[in-house]
Design goal:
Low-confidence stretches: 7-32
Strand content: 15-25%
Strand order of the largest sheet: 6-5-4-8-9
Mean pLDDT: 85
Number of strands: 9
Largest sheet: 5 strands, mixed
Distance between the termini: 64 Å
Order of helices and strands: HEHEEHEHEHEHEEEH
Radius of gyration: 22 Å
Number of helices: 7
Shape: globular
Helix content: 25-40%
Length: about 220
């Protein structure tokens, strides 16, 4: 083999090795089971048109959004976040509405396929005697589309809208859906990463228990 040919082979081998080393591994993206937020969805985030949404809200028949209980608002990422309610006219001050109790926040959108699979699981979880309250957060979506999906799947828990991405920003949420967070009575929030998408109500219960047991 000539010297020139040997150098050519060496360059090819090193190039292939570099590509393999840089090729993304399946475990490099732990959120692969979720839907990545599409760039186009930036344009889909809308504030609700209360006059136009009346029929869709009536059809979806979602539970009313949580209201402040009078408990002191603890410090935390959601303490000052105020968002529109999906099911009715009005704003929800999340810090005050969730104060004093643990709550599971489920971030979802109508365009998210795993979210569609997860809603029935969360419905089943709410029927458990050990369940904590569940509140949905509609992310980067049209309110009308979110209500149409709610009409179809009949969530048994309320949802708020996040048209300005205030909830996502406060939580430091990744650009994937669904994401689930346990907000503890002290106002802190713990992201659920195991599993990324709930497939069984027992998984929800276990994740909630683990998050509430976490310190710091």
């Amino acid at each position: 083999m000539s010297s020139e040919l040997r150098w050519t082979v060496l360059v090819v081998v090193l190039t292939v090795a570099g590509v393999v080393a840089l090729w993304p591994r399946p475990d490099a993206y732990p959120d692969a089971a979720a839907d990545t937020l599409p760039v186009a969805a930036e344009r889909l985030a809308e504030r609700p048109d209360d006059a136009a949404l009346g029929p869709a809200r009536a059809a979806a028949a979602l539970p009313p959004c949580p209201v402040p209980s009078g408990a002191p608002v603890p410090p935390g990422p959601l303490a000052d976040v105020v968002v529109p309610c999906l099911s009715e006219v009005g704003a929800v001050p999340l810090g005050a509405a969730l104060a004093g109790r643990p709550v599971l926040l489920n971030l979802w959108a109508s365009w998210c396929a795993p979210c569609r699979e997860e809603i029935p699981v969360l419905n089943a979880y709410t029927a458990r005697p050990d369940a904590i309250d569940v509140v949905g957060v509609v992310v980067r979506d049209r309110p009308a589309d979110a209500l149409a999906m709610a009409d179809e799947l009949d969530p048994l828990y309320p949802s708020v809208l996040d048209p300005d991405n205030a909830v996502q920003a406060a939580l430091g949420a990744p650009p994937v859906l669904p994401t689930n967070w346990v907000v503890r009575p002290d106002g802190s929030a713990v992201r659920v990463t195991d599993p990324l998408v709930f497939r069984d109500p027992a998984q929800v219960a276990a994740a909630v228990e683990a998050a509430l047991a976490t310190t710091g």
